[in-house]
Amino acid sequence: MRKLREVLRLRYELKLGYQQIGRSCAIGVSTAHKHLKRAEAAGLTWPLPEDWDEAGIEAALFPPVETAVAEGAARPLPDFASIHSELRQHKHPTLQLLWEEYRQANPDGYRYSRFCYLYQRWLSKLDVVLRQEHKAGEKMFVDWAGTTIPVYDRHTGEVWQAPLFVALLGASSYTWAEAMRDRQMESWLCGHVHAFEHFHGIPALAVRDNTRTGVTRAHRYDPDLNPTYYNFAQHCGFGIVPPRPRKPRELKPRSKTPCKWRNAGSWRRSDTASSFRSRN
Predict the structure, then answer these.
(1) What SS3 class is residue 225?
(2) 58-74 average pLDDT score
(3) What is the residue extent of each domain of the chain?
(4) What pTM does this model have?
(5) What's phi and psi for 252, nearest 5 deg?
(6) In a designed cystine with 57, which of 4, 7, 117, 182 is the match (CB 3.0 to 4.6 A)?
């Protein structure tokens, strides 16, 4: 209960102050002040008409606010997912430009201020991702690419799907990609060796996905590394950092620069392993 009648009585009949009214009615001082201000704006005088009950006083002090809910519900909502994608993929579009395009397609749509507010509210509900900063020479990200590529034998014409080993330096996004014969441990280690030769050095850490060639058992805090891969890391002098299970973002470096190759369709046999790599 708001105790509006009692607040008005204590103020206008007993001439009490706001603090005394608040203590007597068990309400805050600011609440008592707000009720009396509303009574003054509504033109109420004391004593009140006898037929006024608490509901009538509340209706006089707190009239229903007419909102444009029906009008706002009829307005088409912008495609915030598409807007967010445009802002991330291209550097030239702005919210102002995208809003103008939205208003051209929807003349009765939201104004710019409301458009920005709704976009920021939609954006606040997205999953928060911490941007990673990498030091030069600290981390090398390694993994098998998701898709395979066809490799043709120049003599027999035989075709097989070759998995692609990719190594990328976190700070510079400097990339080494190599087509392998298979995804076995020998190909995995040869890919590392060729990447080290290409980079002219060995990074301090290798961050790789929970692939079977690197991890025997994935675990959030204590994964079991493949013994052969572990011994290889000890011999070369780098550490292995596996990402947590179901956390693919930890494997992605800071830069999203795509890999580029020259003469991607030309391959030659490696002398050190049954693998193939591009001529750069």
Answers:
(1) strand
(2) 63
(3) 4-61, 69-124, 139-278
(4) 0.45
(5) -85, 130
(6) 4
